[in-house]
Amino acid sequence: MRLTVFWNRMNQQFGEAYAASVAKDYVIAALGGRTIEQALADGEPAKKVWAAVVATFDVPARLQ
Q1: Burial classification of residue 23, based on how many CB atoms lie within 10 Å of its CB (0-12 exposed, 13-18 middle, 19 or more buried)
Q2: At what angle do helices 46-56 and 3-14 cross, to 10 degrees?
Q3: Which of 20, 27, 46, 63 meets the CB 3.0–4.6 Å disulfide criterion with 6?
């Protein structure tokens, strides 16, 4: 998954402003207690990070 696809899905799920806030502030256990931004900066694949988002939030099937 490319980062552009990842951010597109984040924006569809949360809206642009809230997506940025979730990525910066929300700690996700499935990412080792890191935020989305931290996990991506550490080199985690966008696909793995998106899977953690899907597992954590109520993401509609069309975005999974």
Answers
A1: buried
A2: 20
A3: 46
| CA–CA gap between residue 64 and residue 60 (Å, rounded) | 7
Q: What is the pTM of this model?
A: 0.92
Of all residues in the chain, the percent with pLDDT exceeding 90 is: 97
Q: Are 41 and 34 in contact (CB under 8 A)?
A: no
- Following CA atoms 2, 32, 54, 44 in sequence, which dihedral angle do they give, to the nearest 10 degrees? 10
How is the chain split into domains, by residue range? 3-59
Cα–Cα distance for residue pair 44/62, rounded to 1 Å: 23
